[in-house]
Amino acid sequence: MVDGHEKDSGTAIPDGSASSLGAFDLRRRVGHGGMAEIWLAERRGVQGFNKPVAVKKILAARAEKKSYIEMFIGEAKLVSRLQHRNIVQIYELGAVAGTYYIAMEFVDGWDLLKLLKQCSHGRRPLPESLAIHLICEVLRGLDYAHNAKTQDGNDLNIVHFDVSPSNILLSKNGSVKLTDFGVARASMELGEGSASDRFRGKIAYMSPEQLDNRAVDRRSDIFSAGIVLYEILTLKRLFRAKSNDQTISNVRKADIEPRLHRHPEIAAPLKAVLRKALRKEPDERYATASEMADALADYLFESHVRVTDRQVAEFLRQVFERTPSAGFLKVDTQSGRTGHSGSGVGSTKRSDSTSPAYTDNGMFDAENALRVLCRLATQRASGKLSVSRDGARKTLYFARGRLVYTTSSLPSERIGQLLLSSGAVTERQLSMAKERVEIQGEKVGQALVALGALSFPDLHRWLDKQVETRFSEVFTWKQGHYSFSSDSMPDPDVPRLNIDVFSLSARVVESVFSSRWLASYFGRLGNPTLTPSESAPFPVENFRLAGRDLRLARQLLGRTASIRESLRRFAKADIEKRQVLQLLFLLHQTEHLVEKS
């Protein structure tokens, strides 16, 4: 069951026996609930024209009850008045042989509940910026519906009554659409409604006044949207309990402070939005859905983040298709959630040993290493990145997007060899440390500190140097491979580092890539014209560039130009040519600059 709608695995009609409903060929049943079933269908037209649509068909068991038919017709008549990018469009209301149906926009994708389940089971949180964007889109659709009018200019006074994850659809192209106005009512059509009207929604997403059969208006939907926002941010249910009675009690109390206290990763401004949206008394909430949407949009603006449909589509593709990312996913660097103990949204409680891990894999070489590493940092990912090439194997462990530990099969990258080759320790000291390791089971670095060959601060500086060495070397690879798994972390007793990937990446690009290699890289791309992306994946300041480099990077981000044009404008000498090419590479790899179509 999916929040009251049972989702079929895709009940298809056998080939050669396609069912018809008027002008529609029913292809596959994709869901059904208490009143209707939903089919993927095609609308037939002249000259072989076919259009995919979703057909909602009233169940035979309900077709003889006048109240159900009236509700079904009421939904179609109501939503047909609404034309907004965030609301599923109604095309037609019809009846064939006594069977009533609604033909509506087909959204090729998933509902939000399925996304939350997938993220919860895979312990892969949604980026904070993406979560906010999804709710903003829902709120824009709600605000349009709340303010809809009749042709005569009278208010329809629409209240959705059922704002919940299963009624928020996410298309593969990244659009967000609100559906299932079947429990909504317009005062002009259905009167004030009864308690049974209000209880058709899901209890865990209702407002206190909805449960108490008090007067209900648009602010009830705002309360529900606040619940959904909390659950997207945390992957936890807010009010749902083991019994309906306890769930109802939780909603009526609307006490969210204990829940917010458990999630220090939620930024203070977002907590303020949640508190206002989830006030027990409607008068204390946001007055309109647009007011709440504006508060969230202001937070994104102040965080220098903008989310586009393309970014949503890329995230959905990664979650559901489990394929390596061809591009760079632009998400908010402040998200920082890495999963929490306990049950997730729409899931039963599972132990870590049974929860499937989020994985990603693909090719890894000099031309995409930066892209992969910065993507993990931007997503604030936690887990193990394994890379391999010609027998060389390395692991890089991330915690909330920062590099905390590495291993390498290359002897030259072991801490003892690094210290010896640099003259930081002698062969005798290293030999004594290795003996201590064999006897007492210590790490080489710990043994050297215990022997007095190194101070503890010096050891940490060398561990940082070791990570940088291992990190830098992969930028020279050809035909390597990577895989990332979110279910692996280093042993608790190993010394953890806290290395910023963005600034380290910028230093590596500066030290590793020559002008010749960079010119060849852009040459293989056809010396493209680069233009600033619609929204920066993260602030360019995260690279911690030197003052002159930062000023040049901002200049490059302020114009559309070919590689040659940028070099002519900013590179007067060979050293400047390398600097410009390095910055262009850095910005192109992270999609601050994208190829102009």
Structure report:
The protein has 597 residues and is α+β, with helices and mostly antiparallel strands. The protein has four domains: 1-106, Phosphorylase Kinase, domain 1, CATH 3.30.200.20; 108-352, Transferase(Phosphotransferase), domain 1; 357-500, no CATH class; 513-595, no CATH class. Helices cover 40% and strands 17% of the residues. It is built from 22 helices and 18 strands. The strands form four sheets. Strands 1, 2, 3, 4, 5, 6 and 7 form a seven-stranded antiparallel sheet that branches. A five-stranded antiparallel sheet has the order 11-15-12-13-14, covered by helices on one side. Strands 8-9-10 form a three-stranded antiparallel sheet. A hairpin with a 5-residue loop joins strand 4 and strand 5 (50-58). Helix 7 packs antiparallel against helix 10 (268-277) and helix 21 packs across helix 22. The longest helix has 19 residues, at 128-146. Mean pLDDT is 80; it is low at 1-18, 186-201 and 323-359.
